[in-house]
Amino acid sequence: MAMQQDYVERAFSDDAHGGVCTRTRSKMSASERDESGRQLLTLTALGSSGNEFFRDAGIVAERIEVDGLATQRRHFELTEFFVIGEPDACGSDLVIEFCRSRRPELAVAAKRVQANLYAVLWQVSKARVVVTDNVERIDEIVDADPESASEWISKAWLLFEGTVAPKPPRFERQCKPCEFSSRGGCPYPRRGSIPSHKEMKRIADRFSR
Ligand code: SF4
Question: DSSP labels for the chain?
Answer without folding.
Answer: -GGGHHHHHHHHHGGGGTTEEEEEPPPPPHHHHHHHHHHHHHHHHH--TTSHHHHHHHHHHHHHHTTT-EEEEEEEEETTEEEEE--SEE-SSEEEEEEE-S-HHHHHHHHHHHHHHHHHHTT-SEEEEEEE-SSSEEEEEEE--HHHHHHHHHHHHHHHHTSSPPPPPSSGGGGTT-HHHHTT--SHHHHS-PPPHHHHHHHHHHHH-
